[in-house]
Amino acid sequence: MNATIIYASLTGNNEEVAEIIQKQLQEQGVQTQLIEISQADAFELSSADLAIVVPYTYGEGDLPEEGLDFYEDLLDADLAGVVFGVAGSGDEWYADEYCKAVTEFDQQLAGTKATRGAQPVFIDLHPEAEDEQRLAAFTTSLIQTATQLEV
């Protein structure tokens, strides 16, 4: 099984979230590829078993500017057979805008014919031990969903 993890990070928090996900997947035998979002190609995700996006939310609920092309390309991508998940760090201080990019990427990926393998994970600022536990449940759910699709 292979996974492509795409992240966008301003503060380093989301890069750390992506690295935690990568480590957890590798510990379960999944081959991983970690890509910064400006270098990602939405159409290449079709070759992955798992596609994980870790975006930050900027300003008043805005998507990462360097990820806008990737986000828009997802509209035309056919990711049937791919299992996806979205996780990301944000600041709860922003209330309604908290981790809005995570929700928007989740909805965009749902429109690609990919299968949601886990509910989105929102992390307040820097990932702590309890966040790592939630991410472990997230990665396990992704793998289980992909395994069920293979049967």
Q: What's the short story on this structure?
A:
The protein is an alpha/beta fold.
**How much β-strand is present in the residues?**
15-25%
Class by SSE composition: alpha/beta
Give the quaternary arrangement of the chains.
Answer: single chain
- Give the class-level CATH name: Alpha Beta
Overall shape: globular
Quickly count the helices: 4
Mean pLDDT: 95
**Termini, distance in Å?**
13 Å
In total, the number of domains comes to 1
Supply Rg: 14 Å
The total of beta strands comes to 6
Instruction: Identify the CATH architecture.
Output: 3-Layer(aba) Sandwich
Mind summarizing the main beta sheet? 6 strands, parallel
Helix content: 25-40%
- Which ranges are low-confidence, i.e. pLDDT below 50, for 5 or more consecutive residues? none
Which fold name corresponds to the CATH topology? Rossmann fold
Task: Provide an overview of this structure.
By secondary structure, the chain is an alpha/beta fold. The chain has a single domain, classed as Rossmann fold (3-Layer(aba) Sandwich). Helix content is 36%, strand content 21%. It has four helices and six strands. Strands 1, 2, 3, 4, 5 and 6 form a six-stranded parallel β-sheet that branches. The longest helix has 22 residues, at 129-150. The two termini are 13 Å apart. The model has no long low-confidence stretch (mean pLDDT 95).
